């Protein structure tokens, strides 16, 4: 795995999921999620000042997105080709939303979300996985 591939994958995936969720927020008229900053606060063990929360949430979203680039780059390094690489990566991309954040007690577990919310989250993370795969391909150019 190269650092370049991991960074390209993470950045492209983050751009894709941000675009996907921004479009969905506008269509549904919902406010941005506070899950990234709420998770950060849970991990550091304290509530951040209100004025820091938006920037901290954005930073947590970016950090999570960039970190997930590494496992996608590892799939490429292992020689897994498309479309199998993206298909194998989708569950990894879903881990923060479906497992880690609920395990920290920030959100309800997915089985309490309802089918619509699960499908929307899965689509956002599919967008992340596709973007990350495109990022890996771009890193190799």
Can you give a write-up of this model?
There is one protein chain. This protein has one domain (3-139). Helix 1 (3-28) packs across helix 3 (53-67), helix 2 crosses helix 3 and helix 4 runs antiparallel to helix 5 (84-103). It starts with a helix and ends with a helix. It contains 6 helices and no strands. 74% of the residues lie in helices and 0% in strands. By secondary structure, it is mainly α.
Short description:
With 141 residues, the chain is an all-alpha fold. It is 74% helix and 0% strand.
Helical residue percent band:
over 70%
Q: How many structural domains?
A: 1
Distance N terminus to C terminus? Answer: 15 Å
Question: Percent of residues in beta strands?
Answer: under 5%
Number of helices: 6
Order of helices and strands: HHHHHH
Mean pLDDT: 96
What does the largest sheet look like?
none
Radius of gyration: 15 Å
Beta strand count: 0
Shape: globular
Given helix and strand content, the structural type is mainly alpha
List keywords for this structure.
141 residues, mainly alpha, 6 helices, globular
SSE inventory with pairings:
Layout: H1 3-28, H2 35-44, H3 53-67, H4 69-77, H5 84-103, H6 115-139
Helix pairs in contact: 1-3, 1-4, 1-6, 2-3, 4-5, 4-6, 5-6
